[in-house]
Each structure stands twice: as structure tokens, then as C-alpha cells.
């Protein structure tokens, strides 16, 4: 059974910080990206797969395939960085059986009706509802964009959001 060493929500998915900093810090040897849109886009998927550093396997699954794969063999073996683009994906796979204990929110981009709560992380009411639901299920949630940042707990972020 694989060990999920980091579960990260980042709309940018694989980018320089994930590849260099978070993979090294977590000592992950696999990245499992859960994204319906990326799994369906062969061209972009190739780009992401080619961007993996030596020794790190990258796999991209749709939400449904991620849940199926997890429930059948829990992603095989290795140290996995589980990477999702948004909180809707996280909530769906969590409810499907991928019961992570910790979630790191690292990047949710801006759009209308979204509020900046920590650096480049924005939330809207739907995101807050999903986070509250996950927290009530026992998931520890932190906000951290890069390893050098001091992690912010969800309670602190929620206060910022509500002000």
C-alpha cells in the first residue's frame, strides 16, 4: 500500500515549486495527480508527465479512476504526493474512500467572488463549505504555499475569510 506523504490542493498542479520543493521535503517518489480535465487532455498530460524529475513517477487519474484505484490497491506502493486542482475534487475523492488525514491548501487562483486569504490562495463560500465538511470529518487542514512559509491553520484562515 502506498503512503500518501503529502496531499496538496494546488490549481497549478505540477509546477516548479511542487517538483523541486515539495517532492524533496516530502521525500515522495511518486506524484498522483487527480484531475478530470488533465486526464482527458492527452497533449497537456504528456507535458506534465515529461516534467517529472528523474526518479519520480507521475500518474494522472480522473476522480473516478483515483477512487477506484485507491479502493482496489491504495495506489500500489511508494511515497505519494497526491495532487488535486481544487477542493471539489478533494471532497469527492475523500468521500469516495481516499481518507487522508491531512490536506495542504497551496494554491487556489483568483476569480470573481473569491477572497484572498493567504498569499495566492483565494476562497469562495463553496470552498469554505467543503473545507468545513472535511474538517468536521476529522481532516487536519493547513494553508501553505511553499515550505518556507509558516503553515496557517484552517481556523486562522476562516477568521480572515469572514472579516
Q: How would you sum up this structure, described in words?
A:
With 163 residues, this protein is an alpha/beta fold. The chain has a single domain (3-162), classed as Fructose Permease, CATH 3.40.35.10. Helix content is 40%, strand content 26%. It is built from seven helices and nine strands. The chain has helices at 16-26, 36-39, 42-50, 63-73, 87-96, 125-136, 154-162, and strands spanning 3-10, 30-34, 57-61, 79-84, 102-107, 115-118, 121-123, 140-143, 152-153. The strands form two sheets. A seven-stranded mixed beta sheet has the order 3-2-4-1-5-8-9, sandwiched between helices. A two-stranded antiparallel ribbon has the order 6-7. Strand 8 and strand 9 (152-153) form a beta hairpin. Helix 4 runs parallel beside helix 5. It is globular and about 45 Å long.
The DSSP helix count reads 7
CATH architecture: 3-Layer(aba) Sandwich
What is the mean pLDDT? 92
Helix content: 40-55%
Condensed summary:
This protein is of the alpha/beta class and 163 residues long. The protein has helices at residues 16-26, 36-39, 42-50, 63-73, 87-96, 125-136, 154-162; strands spanning 3-10, 30-34, 57-61, 79-84, 102-107, 115-118, 121-123, 140-143, 152-153.
Amino acid at each position: 500500500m502506498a503512503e500518501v506523504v503529502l496531499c496538496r490542493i494546488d490549481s497549478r498542479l505540477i509546477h516548479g515549486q511542487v517538483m523541486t520543493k515539495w517532492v524533496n521535503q516530502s521525500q515522495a517518489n511518486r506524484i498522483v495527480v487527480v484531475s478530470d480535465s488533465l486526464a482527458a487532455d492527452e497533449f497537456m498530460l504528456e507535458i506534465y508527465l515529461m516534467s517529472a524529475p528523474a526518479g519520480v513517477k507521475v500518474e494522472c487519474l480522473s476522480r473516478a479512476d483515483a477512487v477506484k484505484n485507491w479502493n482496489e490497491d491504495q495506489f500500489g506502493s511508494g511515497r505519494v504526493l497526491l495532487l488535486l486542482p481544487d477542493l471539489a475534487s478533494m471532497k469527492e475523492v475523500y468521500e469516495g474512500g481516499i481518507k487522508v488525514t491531512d490536506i495542504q491548501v497551496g494554491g487556489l487562483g483568483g476569480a470573481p467572488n473569491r477572497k484572498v486569504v493567504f498569499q495566492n490562495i483565494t476562497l469562495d463560500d463553496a470552498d469554505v463549505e467543503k473545507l468545513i465538511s472535511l474538517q468536521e470529518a476529522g481532516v487536519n487542514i493547513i494553508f501553505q504555499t511553499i515550505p518556507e512559509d509558516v503553515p496557517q491553520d484552517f481556523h486562522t484562515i476562516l477568521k480572515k475569510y469572514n472579516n
